[in-house]
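Page 47, continued from p. 46.
Same chain as before, 258 aa.
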Amino acid sequence: MLAAGVPESARPPVTLLATSDEETGSATSRPVIDALARASAAALVLEPAIPGGALKTARKGVGEFEVRAHGVAAHAGADPSAGASAVHELARQVAAMTALADPAAGLSVNVGVIEGGTRSNVVAELARAWVDVRVSGGADGARIEAALNALRPLDPRVRLEVSGGINRPPMERSPGVAALFALARDVARSWGEHLTEGATGGASDGNFTAALGVPTLDGLGGVGDGPHALHEHVIVDVLPRRAALLAGLLARAGTDLR
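Result:
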């Protein structure tokens, strides 16, 4: 703040929160995030930028579900008709679940992990699938939860069990988010940089702060590419400009957001 030339009287109080459980759902940090957000004029999230440097003014909400199929075990060679395969039933349910996706509306359904059965010569008694859901709007979350909980087995001898739900609301581009981005754009413009914004299907703890009505600006961290991929990287040479952007935004926030 001193480097930004901001007088002490205009410096806003800043709280830095670093969490370690965001990738696993923020189960333990969520109460702290919510409490600090309610006491703040804005939330600035240091997640990586969209490739190319754009800030994130909208994010999808996230749902995590587990679908279990409980079948009837039997010998696959001697008496297969006595069994009811949980694996076969789950395969049919995967097709039903992925059919719920609506890419045009920003709704995606990904069955990311499947496990089941014990041996190839045994009709499987149990099979499980873990499902990732992404939604662009709050109403979509309620609809997909209802649809997944309404799944019914095609084989009446198999029982389905669905658990989980939407655990991270969407970060929607509210007027407060737009105003915060406008401040950041003005800061970048002061040294000749054209700053852009965008939406992403990934989520962050900024989803929580935005859902509370707190103006939230995300993607203020490093610029790079390849999230969760083998080529994931950050461009080191750009980091000083991102630090300057954050400093300038804090300086402006001290007066513009009061």
